[in-house]
Structure formats: C-alpha cells, structure tokens
Amino acid sequence: MTSDLLAPLDLAFWNIESDRHPMHLGALGVFGAHSPTAGAHAADLLAARAAAVPGLRLRIRDVWQPLAFGAAVRETDPDFDPLNHVRLHAPTADFHAVAGRLMERPLERGRPPWEAHVLPGEDGMSFAVLFKFHHALADGLRALKLAAGVLDPVDLPQRAPRAIEPPRGLLPDVRRLPGLLPGLVRGVLSDAGRALDIGASLARSTFGMRPSSALTSSPSGTRRTAGVVVDIDDVHRVRKSVGGTVNDVLIAVVAGALRRWLEERGESTKGVAPRALIPVSRRRPRTAHPQGNRLSGYLIPLPVGEPDPLGRLDTVRTAMIRNKDAGPNRGAGAVALLADHVPALGHRLGGPLVGQAARLWFDILVTSVPLPGLGLRLGGHELTEVYPLAPLAPGQSLAVAISTYRGRVHYGLVADAQAVPDLDRFAHAVSAEIETLLSACEA
After folding, report:
1. Which of 79, 295, 327, 440 is 20 to 30 A from residue 268's alpha carbon, by CA?
2. How many structural domains compose the chain?
3. In angstroms, rounded to a whole number, what is the distance separating the alpha carbons of residues 227 and 103?
C-alpha cells in the first residue's frame, strides 16, 4: 500500500481540529429534479461512482516512526466502502437548515475524511447534495476535482503531458552539494527573515483594528448556514463604474453587509474594522505535491465603520493593492507559511494552541472558491445553485465563502448557531448591499 506524507499545512489542519471546530470544507449544491425519486437515484450514482475515484479512497493515518514522528500520511483504505460516505436523508423544505446541522459533525477520522449527503426536496422538484471534505484531504481546488469525479462526465480540454525527468542517483547530487551550499544557506536565512517579517506584521495588525463582539464568541459547536445569490452583471456594473476588481467588490459587499447587520442589531459600528483573512492559493500546476494545501493569505481591515458605500469599496481596493504589492509571502496574512517551519511533532503538540490563537490573527474569513463556468449535472439533473461553506476557527462566529457559477455569485455563509441566530438577516444584508452599491454608482 503506497502512502503520501502530509504536507506541513495539511498536518496543521489535521491537528487543529476539535469536536467543536471540525476542519472540513463544504459545498451545498442544489439540483433541479425531474421526479420525486431523483434524490434517491443521485445517492445511488454517487456511491457507485465514488469507488472509481482514487482520491476518495484515501484515509489519513498517524505515523510514529523515528524519521516521521508525529507526522501523518494519506493512504488507500483497504476497507473503503462508499456506503459509509454517501447518505440519503428524508425530504426537507429547507436545505440550509439540514446542512447547518450536518456541518456540525466532524468527519470520522478512521475512514477517508469525506461525506456526501443527499437531501431530497419536499416539493419533488429539487434535491441538494452537501459535500464535506476534510481540509487535510483537499483544499478548495482539489475538493472541486474530487466532487467533479462523481458528477456527470463533462468534456474538458486535455493538457499536454509533462515530460518526466529521469531519476538521478545519489552520487551526482553529492558531487553537486558544495556548489549548492551557498544557495541553501541563503535560502535558510531568507526563510528565517521572512518568518520574522510575518511575525512582526502579525503583531502590527493587532493595533488599531476593532472587531465587533458579534464576530467573536465562545464556541458552542453548533452550526447554521445560509446562502445568497447575486447577479454577476450587477457586480461588473459596480466595478466598471468605480474601478478595482470583481473580488474587491465582493469583499466590500461583506463589509457593507456587516455594517447593516450590526446596526439592525442595535450595535455601534463606529470605528469597527474587523480583520478579514483572504486566503490566497499558492498552488501551481503539476507541482511535486499536487494534493497538499499551498495557501497563504492577505489580511485587510473591513471598513465596517465607514458610512459611505463607495468609501468602503475604495478602502478595500487600496488594502488589496497593498497586499498584492507585498505578495502572498509577506505580511500578517501569510502566517500559514510558517507551518512549513514547524516539525511534525510540533504540529501534533501545538495544534490545539494554534487553533485557539486564530482569533488573535483574524476576525472573519472571506474566501473565494473557483468553479468551472460550464454547467454541471448529476444523473442528468442540472446544478442550479452551489454554496461553498468554510470551517469556523475557534472563537469566531462567522465565515464567508464565495463562488461564481454560470453568471451568478453565490455567497455561502457559515455561523455558530448560538452566537448568530439571525444569520438570515445577515444574508438579507448582503443582498441589500449590492443594491446600495448600484444606487451609489448611479447617483
């Protein structure tokens, strides 16, 4: 049985997890149905197809060998049974209500850490599938690839295969070592300097930013989800009117929605500027570790205290430009890169502490998950909506994930159900903020 050692960041995600803070990604896809039995048929298809997707057969096993003490590996589960992972539920009128309860439950660590929950609609005209993938098994891009493996086949352009470099023996590398040493030393010093720079940036980021108490909470272990759909044409109208990128507009919408939501709660927004972590993928095609998480991030203050919607957008745009100029390897948002400098046993022992420290790093996660532009189907049923769902860090009560699919932007919202019982009001605030930006651009 072959095995693949977890990359440092994957190992960190594996060890940060607790019962109240499961580290799985989610995606709630809604499909149009041709008949009331469409959901049951979809569950059968998912179970049948999962057996043929190698990545879905991978479990994660802890390793206590001398050279990898405290590490973990991905390996094929010899007892893999798709029926342990695909579940058909009773019909429901509220997909998000069921998804929230299912997102509470950690994945079983002794099996391949993923699940697919099929939720038939009470009206018989739709069904939903909630996919859950542990962050140590897959990042957003790989989770998309694994999910695509059990959906209906689509014709995608094929990449030309990369030429495989012949293996080299040890002796040539030994002979080259003297010439490589200066570069290796420079690399170590550079890594150390970068780590110090990231640490200093993190310390600076704690000053002058005041989050709302609504974004921090004692963990209850409960979850609530909601979704918002926005027309991408409206986003482009705002972008073309005031400049910046689509992502700038989508982040500014979150800032404005937070302001509206907090004011409706009767909370003051004066001076409120929660730190938003914007994950940045560092994955490159055909890398040596295609399954490993390669993430960094940008850290920006969300201008919740700014009353002018265009002023909020300008602040977000300026902060994103500053982050991009520095690059994803610098700044407080790049703390994830420090995982590469921690030995496996350090991740094992320090994982819970690192998880608790997340609230010192950022206040809310705002992440984008790419989706293909072409239509996806399951059993011939068209995917009409798809809401990405992000994990909650300890001490945080709200996370926002965003995907664009077939001309519409989908905001997937995950919250601690006890800390944010009014998540639907925040969802309405997201919709209202788009209208506010459009009106401000037309004024």
Report:
1. 440
2. 2
3. 14
Same domain, 410 and 262: yes
Query: Which of 47-75 are b and which e, b meaning 16 or more Cβ less than 10 Å from the residue's Cβ?
Result: bebbeebebbbbbbebbeeeebebbbbbb
| pLDDT for the residue numbered 6 | 87
Domain boundary among 133, 149, 165: 149
145 and 206 belong to one structural domain: no
Dihedral sign for Cα atoms in the order 223, 229, 232, 237: negative
144 and 197 share one domain: no
- Percent residues over pLDDT 70 in the chain: 74
Q: Distance of alpha carbon 61 from its chain centroid, rounded?
A: 23
Residue range 334-360, pLDDT digits in tens: 555 444 545 555 545 555 555 555 566
With 90 as the cut, is the pLDDT of residue 152 above it? yes
Q: Distance of CA 357 to CAs 98, 351, 352, 405, Å?
A: 30, 10, 9, 34
The verdict on 140 and 233 lying in the same domain is no
* pLDDT 10s digits, 424-436: 999 999 999 999 9
Per-residue model confidence as pLDDT tens digits over 288-321: 444 555 566 888 999 999 999 999 999 999 999 9
d(CA 294, CA 232): 28
Residues 98 and 218 in one domain: no
Q: Is the pLDDT of residue 193 over 60?
A: no
What's the token pair of residue 189? 């010093």
Mean pLDDT, residues 265-286? 81
CB 417 within 8 A of CB 220: yes
